[in-house]
């Protein structure tokens, strides 16, 4: 008798399968989408964004085509002894066994990075214990209640006296979304016209369908209205908000995914603006388009691909056109406002300006100055202090002797902003060290240092780095740069420029250089293209 009862109450383990998104290889952008179900073949997609879209579509297809959750199964996670079913006790605590409860559901669990999605057939208590679980279907409540009553009976009920089965829900009416939208938490219970009235009355009160207002979506600090039409637009905005928040929680950036999200946001905000005639939404859509273009360009630079797809791109130290314009603005300001004549004074003023450009104050150590090709750096600092252009805490000798653990505080009054004058530069605090680091890389470039080039040659290198196009050709359209402009910037006589050009050519900075009566033509070598700020 006991054996028969055990056979009658035996329950099978719930179903479980996983859809994964994995990189194809190191340094490659394409990804592989795989499914643990045996009939599904792996797919290779060109990008993580495309792979994630294909993985979600594949999972939704399984959910729509697959059978409903079965009320008489064990939790799928219990077979693997997950942390919910094994609750470790402390030294003074007694272990508390986990008890499953509630209706059997079909839940989708995903990781925060969006790398895998797992479908489990488990009880509602186990689904609630997983922080990322989304319930997409629930077993009939009446049958589940009758099953629980039957399991509590002292004797085994014959198979012929089992509770009559009800119509199982089909997934064709379920459209799971991986966001906090109304359909993502769908617990719809199908009509049970064929079930006995007594079984329907025995269902717990909590299992009755209730009409709840779906939670409002949020994207870009905007709430998505409940009554926004079309409904597809409302769902798209809600899902985009969740995707952006999930991206912000990532530990590593994915610029290709970010570009796709911004492109989807731009399209959705354009449609939202058309539906509501809101000018602010239209402006947000335009900003999203610009953000998508910038993220896509940065992604191409990062993977070493040209924007036109024809060849490898140059990975530049300064990556954005706005940064290139700010670099040229700093050099132009120094050329117009240098307090002392001479190439050495001009070079020192450039480096100090970049250290203090944002607030008018900064720190210097002796190595910053001794690393420049200056014959008498202490005398030059004293001259800048006497002219009133530079202020230092201490003496010039102490500045030259200062070390990184004890830097010298410096200030440039003409760059210090106040209420009436915000200063000559408009870039932010984060960009200033990037510009300063770029200038240090140019003037301290390895071959320029080994060649023991002077301040005039390094000033010319700065000028050419900001005066060439994307391919390294000098001047707009490769037409060259005027000699008067270069001599004024380098603070040298125009007759001395051919010698400076020869030194840059010997240092493998210039190729095909030609000094005419009015212009310098040629191009930067491939070696120094990453240091360039192309003309746009």
A few lines on this structure:
By secondary structure, the protein is an alpha+beta fold. Helices cover 40% and strands 13% of the residues. It folds into three domains: 167 residues, no CATH class; 86 residues; 211 residues, no CATH class.
Fold and architecture overview:
With 536 residues, this protein is an alpha+beta fold. It folds into three domains: 13-157 and 170-191, no CATH class; 218-303; 321-531, no CATH class. The chain contains 19 helices and 16 strands. The chain has helices at residues 2-9, 48-65, 76-79, 124-129, 141-151, 197-201, 231-248, 255-276, 279-303, 321-337, 343-356, 366-370, 377-386, 396-401, 431-443, 446-450, 455-465, 483-490, 497-506; strands spanning 12-13, 16-23, 31-35, 43-45, 73-74, 104-110, 116-123, 134-138, 218-219, 222-223, 361-364, 391-392, 408-411, 481-482, 510-515, 519-524. The strands form five sheets. A six-stranded antiparallel β-sheet has the order 4-3-2-7-6-8. A three-stranded antiparallel β-sheet has the order 11-13-12. Strands 14-16-15 form a three-stranded antiparallel β-sheet. A hairpin with a 7-residue loop joins strand 2 (16-23) and strand 3. Helix 11 runs antiparallel to helix 15. The chain is elongated. The termini are far apart. Mean pLDDT is 79; it is low at 1-9 and 142-203.
């Amino acid at each position: 008798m006991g054996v028969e009862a055990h056979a009658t109450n035996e329950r099978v383990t719930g179903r479980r399968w996983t859809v994964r998104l994995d990189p194809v290889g190191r340094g490659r952008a394409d990804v592989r989408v795989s499914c643990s179900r045996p009939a599904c073949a792996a797919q290779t997609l060109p990008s993580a964004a495309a792979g994630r879209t294909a993985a979600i579509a594949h999972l939704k297809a399984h959910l729509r085509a697959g059978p409903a959750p079965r009320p008489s199964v064990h939790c799928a996670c219990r077979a693997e002894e997950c942390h919910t079913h094994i609750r470790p006790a402390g030294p003074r605590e007694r272990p508390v066994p986990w008890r499953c409860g509630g209706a059997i559901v079909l839940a989708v669990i995903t990781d925060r990075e969006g790398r895998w999605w797992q479908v489990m057939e488990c009880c509602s208590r186990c689904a609630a214990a997983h922080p990322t679980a989304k319930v997409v279907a629930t077993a009939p409540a009446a049958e589940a209640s009758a099953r629980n009553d039957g399991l509590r009976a002292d004797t085994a009920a014959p198979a012929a006296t089992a509770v009559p089965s009800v119509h199982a829900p089909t997934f064709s009416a379920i459209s799971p979304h991986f966001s906090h939208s109304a359909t993502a938490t769908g617990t719809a219970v199908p009509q049970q016209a064929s079930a006995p009235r007594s079984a329907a009355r025995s269902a717990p009160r909590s299992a009755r369908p209730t009409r709840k207002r779906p939670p409002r979506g949020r994207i870009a600090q905007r709430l998505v209205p409940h009554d926004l039409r079309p409904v597809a637009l409302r769902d798209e905005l809600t899902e985009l908000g969740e995707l952006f928040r999930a991206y912000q929680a990532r530990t590593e950036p994915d610029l290709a995914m970010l570009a796709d999200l911004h492109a989807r946001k731009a399209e959705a905000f354009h449609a939202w603006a058309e539906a509501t005639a809101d000018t602010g939404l239209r402006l947000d859509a335009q900003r999203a388009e610009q953000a998508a273009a910038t993220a896509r360009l940065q992604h191409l630079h990062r993977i070493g691909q040209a924007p036109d797809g024809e060849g490898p791109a140059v990975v530049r130290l300064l990556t954005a056109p706005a940064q290139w314009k700010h670099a040229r603005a700093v050099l132009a300001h120094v050329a117009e406002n240098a307090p002392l004549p001479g190439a050495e004074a001009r070079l020192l003023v450039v480096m100090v300006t970049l250290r203090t450009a944002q607030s008018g104050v900064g720190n210097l150590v002796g190595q910053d100055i001794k690393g420049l090709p200056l014959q008498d750096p202490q005398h030059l600092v004293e001259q800048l202090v006497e002219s009133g252009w530079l202020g230092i805490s201490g003496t010039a000798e102490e500045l030259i002797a200062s070390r990184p653990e004890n830097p010298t505080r410096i200030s440039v009054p003409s760059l210090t902003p106040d209420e009436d004058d915000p200063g000559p530069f408009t870039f932010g605090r984060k960009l200033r060290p990037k510009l300063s680091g770029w200038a240090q890389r140019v003037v301290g470039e390895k071959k320029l240092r080994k060649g023991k080039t002077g301040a005039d040659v390094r000033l010319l290198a700065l000028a050419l780095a900001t005066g060439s196009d994307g391919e390294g050709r000098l001047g707009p359209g490769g037409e060259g740069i005027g000699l008067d402009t270069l001599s004024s910037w380098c603070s040298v006589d125009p007759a001395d420029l051919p010698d400076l050009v020869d030194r840059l050519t010997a240092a493998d900075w210039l190729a095909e250089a030609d000094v005419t009566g009015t212009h310098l033509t040629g191009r930067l070598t491939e070696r120094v293209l990453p240091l360039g700020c192309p003309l746009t």
